[in-house]
Specification:
By secondary structure, the protein is an all-alpha fold. The protein has a domain of 33 residues. 52% of the residues lie in helices and 0% in strands. The protein has 2 helices and no strands. The relative contact order is 0.06.
Length: 65
């Protein structure tokens, strides 16, 4: 009520546009990161997959000395 009496009707919505823009950018960024993680998990682009398409097994790794 105080803001409306001092700044008018538009004072109640001051800052709404920047906040909506920030939420939109944040949602887009989260979507892209999630998409990338999904792609890595399902297509093995995180370096855990061999070039021939077979995953390395722990028994196939060389022993450390």
């Amino acid at each position: 009520r105080y803001i409306k009496s001092v700044d008018g009707f538009t004072g109640c919505y001051r800052g709404l546009t920047p906040k909506l823009c920030a939420y939109t950018i944040s949602a887009y960024a989260v979507d892209k990161v999630s998409e990338t993680e999904y792609f890595k998990r399902h297509f093995g682009t995180d370096g855990n997959e061999r070039q021939d398409g077979e995953e390395e097994d722990i028994e196939d790794l060389p022993d450390e000395e």
